[in-house]
Amino acid sequence: MANRINLDKILKILEAAGTLEEVQSIIEKVRDLFEIDHIVYHWVDSAGEQYGCGTYSDEWVKRYIEQGYLRTDPVVTGCYQRFHPVDWKRLDWSTKAARTFLDDALKHGVGNQGYSIPIRGPNGQFALFTISHNCDDATWEKFTEKYSRDVILLAHYINRKAIDFEPNRTPEGSRNLSPREVDAMTLLAMGYSRAEVAETLSISEHTLRVYIESAKTKLGAQNTTHAIARAISRGLIVV
């Protein structure tokens, strides 16, 4: 599996993407860079329309739809009740329906390990960003420990891009935070400490403070918590 990833380069390429097809191509390249089996992004917009990008086989996607697995998939049902990233091992696979789904997924090459990030938008949107692979528990634990922050940041960048592609979307008039300010406020909203945010974004804590103070000023916030609340309510960040 991957030893080193140039996340900044990936995010810059993603920022420049102009279509979902380009995002699909980027996902495939990132999958190869991480040296894992699959990456999948699934989005339900404010009108209930669904679309996504990913590397699952067409056969599995068709099978998933035909069997109505959306109703019984423990990843979907489990993540819908959560706000933080979830390792699949922490989900409930004890029911007969869940075991049937898992057996079928394994036969179609989904992988026995997975890590999913639930994301919510300002108008009822819900998305899942998932990475999956076939390996032993120890190997997967090392991978997620090393790359979980990169995966979370990538998930939110892709989700932000998907929001831009949402049909009939009315742009936010107050969307005035810089990309780095959005990244910082998103990670803080997810419960990261300032030290963890700085490490994830590969910046100093002094630089992070500059981003936070700038965001507070733009949002007219009294403190960081107030700024996060305003950013979420205005749809500037999604968690």
Automatic annotation (TrEMBL):
Alphabetical list of SUPFAM superfamilies matching this protein: C-terminal effector domain of the bipartite response regulators, Pheromone-binding domain of LuxR-like quorum-sensing transcription factors
Keywords, comma-separated and alphabetical: DNA-binding, Transcription, Transcription regulation
Pfam families: Autoind_bind, GerE
Protein name per its UniProtKB record: LuxR family transcriptional regulator
PROSITE patterns in the record: HTH_LUXR_2
Organism superkingdom: Bacteria
Domain named HTH luxR-type: residues: 170-235
